[in-house]
Structures are given as structure tokens and as C-alpha cells.
Amino acid sequence: MGTPQDVRWTEAGEERSARWFSERGEPPKCVVAADGRMTPDNAYGLAREGTALLWRGDFADARRLLGELKVRADQALGRVSPSGTSAEAFRQYRQAQSERVRVLGMLLLPFDRNSVIPLPGAPDVQQAFTEAYGPADEPFVVSLRDVLQVLWAHDQRRKGFEVPALGDRIYPHFGVFTPVRRDEYLDLVAAAPLPSRTTAFDIGTGSGVLSALLAHRGVKRIVATDQEPRALACARENLVRLGLADRVELLQADLFPPGRAALVVCNPPWVPGQPASLEERATYDPEGRVLRGFLSGLAAHLEPGGEGWLIISDFAEHVGLRPRSDLLADFDASGLRVVARTDARPKTPRTADSADPFQAARAVELTSLWRLAVR
Fold first, then answer.
1. Coil, helix or strand for 68?
2. In contact, 144 and 55? CB cutoff 8 Å
3. Contact 227, 253 (CB under 8 A)
4. Which of 150, 112, 156 is nearest to 131 (CA)?
5. Distance CA 1, CA 368 (A)
6. Residue 336's closest CA among 285, 288, 297?
7. Which end of the chain is more exposed for a tag (fewer CB within 10 A), N or C?
8. Cβ distance 284 to 271 under 8 Å?
9. DSSP assignments along 140-181, one per residue
């Protein structure tokens, strides 16, 4: 989470502070204590102005207040009506979404050491927070929204998700992308013809699911990279449990490992833009850095006759953020040619959600596996 920071406030005439736990940046500069006497309208007004609320009442009341804040934030978001599906309309909507995330993150909970919430009716979150952040040896403060995200991730880690092509389950960790809602790309990887079963690189491995699929298909040696220690730990745990760890080398790296491979696979974030929250980091790629880095470096890491598999959605094309011509020009500039492309429709309910202002784009969206080779 970067350099540790403190959140500071005044309560009962005393200056107080605690460690700030957040994936979202700096702590709020203004914090006031709040409890069940705080009305939803007052809470929403303070949150919009930049004042965070450190909750001192029942945990259940905090959940209810967050629900009220969400209603008001959703109403404000609904008043932003993008005109068409232009890039500017999408950016305006994203700005409104970022403001919604900021406001909902202003309701804070106190934690004692060992990740205990000292509020009436609070759940036991020790295991979930230890999984996410490691042992806590001092008090800290975190937003209720983040607490719920940690609990959701803990539940996903406990249950896992089924990967039919593996005939088994993958168990994601907190902060690691999991294709629970968007798994159509796994079927594409499972069905595409392998150029070789000798070596493969899995760029940005995340949970390790693509490495597991490739090993399951008979690839003998795989090097999987990721920048995030959380992702590498998650991938290692999954591969060990699946009995595939001896076939996959995990390496902390930005994009490529040293050397060349017969197959290089990458599933980068699909939409150019700035993520507004931790869970959006797997979707939004600031300035397309990961996509362009993969394409520009691919030729230098492919063995003769090898292929690079780019897995990407065309949603960005349908909202005017990245025209298809730009993607094809990047292929050409990187010395690559298209061997073949296979497509799949997303399996998400959002494609039929008429309340989504970009439902028309989602209804025609395709996820594609581009098979690329050196020209």
C-alpha cells in the first residue's frame, strides 16, 4: 500500500491518530466522529465536502448508513446522462463514478490491534484482514466500503470459482483479479490451437488461472510474471493445490521475463483509463501502458514460429476510447501479423441492463483472442 500514513482527528477534546489502511491513496484531511444520531443527509453532505465520518455506533447502523449514502450517490450518478457513446461521454461518466467511490469511502471504521472492530455487533474479520494485509500490531482506520470488499474477497477465496476447462476450481486472493463475472476468455484459451507445448510465458498471471490452463493442456514449462506480490502468492497457492507447481516458474517482473518462448499469453486490462478503486485495476489501463508494452516487446520474446496471444475486449472501441485501427496499427508498428482471431460474447448480466448508460456498447461487445506472430 505504499508508505504508511496516519489519519488524525479530534475527539472528546483530544488529538487522536491511527494508521490509515487503504488502497486508495492519502487519508482524508478532515475527520469527525459519528454515530446513530447522524442523519443520512448530513452524512452525505459532509462526505461530499471531503469530511470523513469515523463511526462510533453499532456496526449494523454503519451498514445502514452506507446503504443510504449509496442511494444518494447513485442518484447523483444517474443525473450524469452521457450523450451517445463518445470518448468524452465515457470520461464524464467515469469522473462521476470516481466521485461516487470517493464519497462512499468517507465512512470509516476503527480497528484495534489484531484486526478487531471495537463496535457493538461487529463481525469477526480477523482472518479476512490477515489474509488481505497480514497481521496488524497496532490500531488502524479503514473505510467501511473497503471492509466489505475485504470480506467479499475472503468469501471468494473460501469458495473459489469453477473453471470447466480445468475440471477444478481457482481460489483468488484479495486484490487479485478473479474472472468470476467475466470468464469467457478462459474458454478461448482452452480451445485455441497451441503453436508448441515446449515453453510459454504468462504475462500478468494474477490468480495463475491461465498458467494452470496451459499446464493442463500439456505445456511443459511456463514462466508466469506479475508485479504484485499478492498475485504471485495467489498463483503459487493455486498451482500447488492443482499439482502444477513443478511446471510453472513464478517471477516478479513488469511484463516479460528474460528469454523467449514458443507461446506468450497476456490478458491486459481492457479499457484505457484511470482505475477509481482497487477492484478496477484489472479493467482500466492508464494510457494503455500494459497493452502497448506487451505488443512492443512481444517480437523480442517469441521463439521462431511462436505466437503471442492477446486477450482483449473491444468495449473500448464501442465507446470511442480506442479505435480498431489503432490496435491494428500497434500490431504493425510492433512487427506483428495476425494469424487468427477467435471471439466470445461476454457472460455478464450487464449486457442486458437497460439502466446502464453504455448498455448498447455492452450488447455488441466481444472478447477476442488475437493470435499474433512476427512478420
1. helix
2. yes
3. yes
4. 150
5. 33
6. 297
7. C
8. yes
9. EEEEHHHHHHHHHHHHHHHH-EEETTTTEEE---TTS--TTS
Which 3 state secondary structure label does DSSP give 192? coil
- Residue 269: which H helix or E strand, with range? none
CB 343 within 8 A of CB 317: no
To which residue does cell 466521485 refer? 99
Cβ within 8 Å of residue 324, ≥6 positions away: 314, 317
- The separation between CA 284 and the C-alpha centre of its own chain, rounded to angstroms, equals 8
Report pLDDT digits (tens) over 129-143: 999 888 888 999 999
Residue-wise pLDDT for 229-282, tens only, equals 999 999 999 999 999 999 999 999 999 999 999 999 999 998 888 887 777 788
**Nearest to 63, CA basis, from 7, 132, 119, 5:** 119
How far is Cα of residue 373 from the mean position of the Cα atoms in its chain? Answer: 29
User: How far apart (Å, rounded) are the C-alpha atoms in residues 369 and 267?
Assistant: 9
- Which grid coordinates belong to 65? 448508513
Question: Do residues 108 and 143 touch, judged by C-beta distance below 8 A?
Answer: yes
Of 12, 71, 69, 63, the residue nearest 39 (C-alpha): 69
Amino acid letter for position 163: V
* HSE-CB of 261 using CA atoms within 13 angstroms: 24
The confidence band for 177, taking pLDDT boundaries of 50, 70 and 90, is confident
The pTM for the full model equals: 0.89
